[in-house]
């Protein structure tokens, strides 16, 4: 499962940490943070009852223990025969389940079946059928068997039912915004801008919204699904298409069979008008299902999938284990993407034109879901408490693929972004990675299970080395294929390979909350560097960490690595050197997931930039050394960075030079103009344009005008944003010609531009875009529309106000409701009557996330 696309929007809005996970000057202080102890902390039991304990804001409330589901029956096989009623949005199904008591004899079978009309339940014995008595409460189907069955006696039941997903109570979470399992998109065909589609989403326990099953991750079944659809539609499900039969009524029945067992939450169906682009890997079918207008660019988006399959197969020593692999893009998806066995579902944003691919690709999400075919599908978490055994590996696969395909620098930059996402979440929430207490399994889908887990795996890889790391993964996959696992089985695989006891690593990183917060300082005397490391984290609720780490000293431009192990809250190390070093760098490998404050002079930081062993060390210096007026050494370093071989360094330098006013500022601005026009990477050109826009009272309109004709949408969007505060007559007409573009970078840039400079001519443009944009764009569009309408006569605002109000009340995405609320709130400055409407919207909101935000806004 890919964390919802919303993440990139919200986590990037106000990241209170710098690139390396250190708090920025504006970051809020941690509530209840204590001074770092000078000795190891006393156990909690020794704390005096009179002591006042300050509870950190990130400490969650205690929730009930959530054990793995007890297994009474084993699902063996599921056969489904389904038809669809588009108008009613119903599924008409017949399910034939083969089950077997797990160990103890059983006289009843309990199935998850949410919101069905159950027509009949029968026991199958050969060609004979017997009606069985059952009780059904719209959640679980309790079937009374005709006798006691033992674990050596599999049996079959057949259930006829109607699934009515829209009649279920609405639920969902930040990661998976709806849990009704089965979705009909534009079922009546009334929306001309949207295709008719049907698709499913099973994780976490929503497969039982469309077929009866034992909806737990520690079950495994083979599967066969027959779908009857209209002739014009393509179908997709798990496994291979084993039969396709035309029916006399103009429909067609496609039968898909998965012969290897998988968990019920990984079952899927998709129906729609798709172009199917065929590819192969080692003779296995690799297919891409896209809307027909994206057929020409599908290979450009997905075409590296076979290369990924080859790379992961070789890296893991376990060949891609399934019969085929397909990927399908669907509309109005409720998450980012989902790793259904052999058939990944992506949200519509995975589809891109060739021009859009200039700025970015979808390799990360494609690699993420593909890696799940091993970690999650082939070997599955036994309980949602162990979800990181699925998601941390999938998250780390993005790093692995990027490292292989685009280089270590690009991978490290990605890892830096991932760590930043976790640190942002850790400001208000710190949980163990493997947590057996939670309110809902949906709570597991967070920045801990994904990004923190991925960074922890990177630390483990760095600690034991590549050979041991991938050998252990091979052992883990081989021993536990087609089974459900918990964290100890992963640990034992690593211990078996390395011969080391790694319980300390797994305990502190997987089973305890938080992360190290380190203050590092050093001094030199008598041919020794004295290094002091203080662990500042609140050790009442977080561990004192054991941290194997590399410290590098530089003499005469030659690095010497010193391997130390930090084990105490306050610890000093002596490092032998021949002379006073030019630089002492703690964690020079940049592998620790920690907040690090390291005392260095400016000269040492500059030395680090020019002699860095990795790109993260360069980026750390660029982030920390803000250029001051007249500081030629720093500005010279940044000008040098504008010519670095790696685009990420050039982009960081462009951002660091915003608003710079030194005596050589004119030369720097010329450099930024050069970069904005001619840098080979669109991300860097875009950043340079936005940097130029921070210099007031200077005319860069010629540069912006050239950028409006750039091949990159990202660069064009940056030019529009730059012109928003300094519009020119010469560029206004060109900007207006872009109103037909649907690329998100252009739409959001135009939205911001028109919010400040629009006229009545753009009113209809906003209304149209509010109808046909997706959630992440709508969040910004709705706010800009509110600002734009302040420029409109009050009598002309009625249609727009009604639009924003409807979105604020009823849009399915909570963040779109929030953006719409903000738009109305802006308008309320000039329309006081809207304040009553805002009060009513707040009062009727049911989503706890929004309620909390609204309370802060009052």
UniProtKB/TrEMBL annotation:
Pfam family of the protein (one): Peptidase_M1_N
Signal peptide limits: 1-21
Residue ranges occupied by any Peptidase M1 membrane alanine aminopeptidase domain in the UniProt entry: 304-509
Keyword Protease applies: yes
Segments for region (Disordered): 26-45
Alphabetized UniProt keyword annotations: Aminopeptidase, Hydrolase, Metal-binding, Metalloprotease, Protease, Signal, Zinc
Domain Aminopeptidase N-like N-terminal: 79-266
Catalysed transformations (reactions): Release of an N-terminal amino acid, Xaa-|-Yaa- from a peptide, amide or arylamide. Xaa is preferably Ala, but may be most amino acids including Pro (slow action). When a terminal hydrophobic residue is followed by a prolyl residue, the two may be released as an intact Xaa-Pro dipeptide
InterPro entries: Aminopeptidase_N-like_N, Aminopeptidase_N-like_N_sf, ARM-like, ARM-type_fold, Peptidase_M1, Peptidase_M1_aminopeptidases, Peptidase_M1_dom, Peptidase_M4/M1_CTD_sf
CC cofactor: Zn(2+)
Known EC number: 3.4.11.2
Stated family: Belongs to the peptidase M1 family.
PANTHER family with a match to the protein in the record: PROTEASE M1 ZINC METALLOPROTEASE, PUROMYCIN-SENSITIVE AMINOPEPTIDASE-RELATED
Protein name: Aminopeptidase N
Organism for this UniProt entry: Hymenobacter koreensis
